[in-house]
Write a structure and sequence with these properties.
The structure holds 2 protein chains of 2 kinds. Chain A contains 14 helices and 2 strands. Chain A is mostly helical. Chain A has a single domain, classed as Alpha/alpha barrel (Glycosyltransferase). The radius of gyration of chain A is 19 Å and the shape is globular. In chain A, about 55% of the residues are buried. Chain B has a single domain, classed as 3-Layer(aba) Sandwich (Rossmann fold). Chain B has 13 helices and 14 strands. In chain B, strands 1, 2, 3, 4, 7, 8, 9, 10, 11 and 12 form a 10-stranded mixed beta sheet that branches. In chain B, helix 3 packs across helix 4. The longest helix of chain B has 13 residues. The chains are: A mainly alpha, B alpha/beta. The interface between A and B is large, with 51 and 53 residues.
Chain lengths: ~325, ~350
């Protein structure tokens, strides 16, 4: 699905799908990201790795590869000689944006409209350098104890260097390495074990704790969506993965936000459960009064990625990079 | 999670962009108590310092309800503890509720929207500019935290602005007390630029440190994009130590506590509701938190971060040096259940002993 096709659908069915225009409009709103003053978490703020990477992924997914190029180049500028990307230019840490940048570069290289050879080579070099950095980073292990129930000795990736491994950074690093063709690396095998270990007994996950002091914690929509996207094709028949898909399907029936819903829809699409009413759901989420309050996760690129469903670059990179 | 590694290295800013300690503390806007809250060193002469600092005032109102006249209660409380509200005209006030990991079915976990809106009303009436800000500790999607807590819809209805502290650009400030190994902290722009911060916690038990009130709530002033979700950098550097360091380094901060519906048991996330009907207000956060601890059956000196804060000179902990405004705390004591864990049992007062839950 590209924007052009989408626009035709809208024109034909405008009288029926008035309510869907907000989600569709996100494709057009991506235009804002062609301007550097929209590369930060908010307009006029300095460029940041996460919004840059998500917008680049959205452009690639929407078959607007040319529009992705300046963002991909900016990500290259953010990359330090170690291969790491900090949050902002000139910062090498915290480095959690590195995996997102790798995903953006990989998506561009593998897209239907890949960049010209010289750019593709630069992005490929950035991917290699980024992956090398990821492999040099390890979350801290903690000797087993009775306080938490997850396997604290498994090594994944932390948000911040020299801290414990958590779910979301491990999921994105795992997915980044998959996208770069490194699924066979032992770190990926361990990351998958960690991710499965961090799923709650009843399905779903949160930031990465399961039981603390004997109490089962609660799942959340966004991390569950991210987890399911990252591990697509690698553990689809695992009991906790099946439970997580089921949990997420019912969880999004509750009112939720565009950012959480977007990751949820990608996670479900990655497991063959794309919501048929994704547009309506996204539109409802975008219309929440709280959307005006200025929470800063990049809503527009995420909405575009979610509206692409199984064709979202995050989903295709995950499935194509899976061990099979 | 004891750790030999010093996570300070992960938090040092690039030299080119850092402005170490260049933000000066603004002139205090308060008359009295908070002046005692400046850290004067971890060592020293505690008793001499306490006497010299004078008494801190803590206001308690009982029989409070979320649909009651909370703005009047909060205004009375702030005035009685010495806040000069007219001096806040034209100043920037940031209200910091607790939204660590909201779930619709657990309103006892988060500061009630009615408290936040009422508090905003008081400062708006005084002519201040009011922003509500939070960096939820367990959720990357801050809007989801606003939806789940129902705070978001209340802010929209009250036309209040919100600052997503998890992603705001931030500035590095030197650690004022250096009790933890961290050299400094990144604080979001809204925090740095505030003339006054109001910590608006929910009164809850906390399964690691005993209780969480106005001091621990300020973990949520640090941006997740630099500390993680959870803010594991702080855990590795020591929770009690970093609570004190953050409190000492922040701009002037006062406390307005939602003690109406509280949380006991396995707080701060999974505990059960306990109705107390209290609003607690003070300029000295340590005095407020110590008073709250006594009310819920905990001995403040056994709560590590309160004891460290006391030794660091962040305020008053001893009851003798805390002037009670409004209600006295002793008749309000109603011990909270805590998890049956070795590290928590020690903090219960004699009266609360045995109130344990699994």
């Amino acid at each position: 699905m590209n924007f052009e096709t989408y626009a035709i659908d809208v024109a034909e069915w405008q009288h029926v799908i008035k309510e869907r225009t907000l989600a569709v409009r996100s494709f057009a709103e991506l235009d804002a990201y062609t301007k550097p003053d929209h590369w930060g978490y908010r307009p006029q703020e300095q460029p940041a790795a996460e919004p840059l990477a998500l917008a680049a992924l959205a452009f690639v997914g929407a078959d607007r590869g040319d529009d992705a190029l300046p963002l991909l180049d900016k990500l290259s500028e953010l990359q330090s000689p170690s291969g790491a990307l900090g949050i902002y230019e000139g910062e090498a840490a915290p480095h959690w944006g590195t995996s997102l940048a790798i995903l953006a570069w990989s998506a561009a290289i593998k897209s239907k409209q890949p960049p010209a050879d010289d750019a593709a080579r630069r992005y490929q070099a950035a991917v290699v350098q980024g992956c090398r950095f990821l492999l040099s980073v390890e979350g801290k292990t903690i000797p087993p104890g009775s306080e938490v129930s997850h396997d604290t000795m498994l090594v994944g990736w932390p948000w911040i260097e020299s801290t414990h491994s958590w779910l979301e950074p491990t999921a994105f690093c795992f997915l980044a390495l998959k996208s770069a063709g490194m699924r066979a690396h032992p770190r990926c095998a361990e990351a998958l074990r960690l991710l499965l270990d961090r799923i709650l007994p009843g399905g779903g996950c949160n930031y990465g704790n399961t039981l603390v002091l004997g109490q089962v914690l609660r799942p959340h929509i966004q991390p569950t969506g991210i987890l399911l996207t990252a591990i697509a094709g690698d553990a689809d028949n695992h009991e906790r993965v099946i439970k997580s898909v089921a949990w997420l399907q019912q969880a999004i029936d509750e009112q939720t936000t565009a950012a959480s819903l977007a990751y949820a829809l990608m996670g479900l699409a990655a497991h063959g459960k794309a919501a048929t009413d994704a547009d309506e759901r996204l539109t409802r989420a975008l219309k929440l009064p709280t959307a005006k309050l200025g929470a800063w996760l990049p809503r527009v690129p995420l909405t575009v990625l979610a509206a692409l469903g199984a064709k979202s670059p995050l989903v295709t990179l995950s499935r194509e990079g899976a061990a099979g | 999670m004891k750790d030999e590694h010093n996570p300070a290295d992960a938090l040092r800013p690039p030299l080119s962009s850092a402005e170490h300690g260049t933000v000066k503390r603004r002139s205090l806007l308060v008359a009295g108590g908070i002046a005692a809250a400046g850290a004067v060193g971890y060592a020293g002469y505690p008793l001499v310092r306490q006497v010299a600092a004078g008494r801190s005032s803590v206001f308690i109102a009982k029989n409070q309800k979320y649909d009651g006249p909370l703005a009047k209660t909060i205004e009375d409380g702030l005035t009685s503890v010495g806040l000069n509200l007219p001096h806040l005209k034209g100043k920037r006030v940031l209200l910091k509720p607790n939204l660590v990991e909201p779930m619709r079915g657990s309103p006892q976990m988060t500061t009630h929207p009615a408290m936040v809106v009422a508090c905003a009303e008081v400062f708006l009436k005084a002519g201040a500019t009011v922003t509500v800000g939070e960096a939820p500790g367990h959720m990357r999607d801050t809007e989801a935290a606003l939806v789940e807590s129902r705070l978001g819809e209340a802010l929209v209805a009250a036309k209040l602005s919100f600052a997503d502290l998890n992603y705001e650009e931030s500035q590095y400030l030197r650690n004022a007390t250096k009790i933890s190994p961290l050299e400094g902290f990144y604080f979001p722009r809204s925090i740095i630029e505030a003339d006054l911060i109001v910590s608006m916690p929910k009164l809850k038990t906390h399964h690691w440190v005993g209780l969480t009130v106005s001091m621990k709530n300020l973990y949520g002033t640090l941006p997740g994009n630099r500390y993680g979700w959870p803010k594991n950098v702080l855990h590795h550097a020591g929770i009690p130590q970093t609570v004190v360091d953050i409190n000492a380094t922040l701009p002037p901060t006062i406390a307005v506590v939602d003690g109406i519906q509280c949380m006991e048991g396995d707080g701060p996330i999974l505990g059960t509701a306990k109705d107390m009907g209290l609003v607690v207000v003070g300029l000295d956060k340590l005095a407020v938190d110590s008073t709250c601890a006594r009310i819920i059956g905990m001995e403040p000196s056994m709560v590590t971060y309160l004891e460290i804060a006391h030794k660091a000179g962040l305020g008053q902990m001893n009851d003798f040096f805390i002037r009670q405004e409004g209600e006295r705390w002793k008749p309000l004591v109603s011990p909270f259940k805590i998890l049956d864990r070795e590290h928590l049992r020690a903090i219960q007062t004699q009266e609360a002993r045995g109130l344990l839950t699994s």
